[in-house]
Design brief:
It contains three helices and six strands; from the N terminus they run E-E-H-E-E-E-H-E-H. By secondary structure, it is α+β, with helices and mostly antiparallel strands. Pfam families: YcgL.
Length: 99
């Protein structure tokens, strides 16, 4: 099985996998509006892969066969500044100063 992988220009790290290149007919219109103009990243042969980034081959193939697409959402970003401030014994967010 071959699938097309598109990245979002609106949301960094968000990818849309579809069964056929340029065929977004199975993707809900609301999702396409939020995703923005898709930019083709690659055509991916699934039969030669076991793991694809953060999704298993089985989960991806199942989504493609059942709903016609798979949306990969970026992982939640860690707030390193807040973690550092907490480690220093400070509050997670800097208090606003009143003058």
């Amino acid at each position: 099985m071959l699938c097309a992988v598109y990245k979002s220009r609106k949301k960094e790290g968000m990818f849309l996998y579809v069964k056929n290149k340029e065929d977004f007919s199975s993707v809900p219109e609301v999702l396409m509006q939020q995703f923005g103009q898709p930019e083709l990243v690659m055509l991916l042969p699934l039969d030669k892969r076991e793991q694809l980034g953060r999704v298993s081959k089985e989960k991806l193939m199942s989504a493609l066969n059942e709903q016609g697409y798979y949306l990969q959402i970026p992982p939640k970003r860690e707030d390193w500044l807040a973690e550092h401030r907490l480690a220093m014994g400070l509050s997670a967010r800097e208090e606003s100063k009143k003058f």
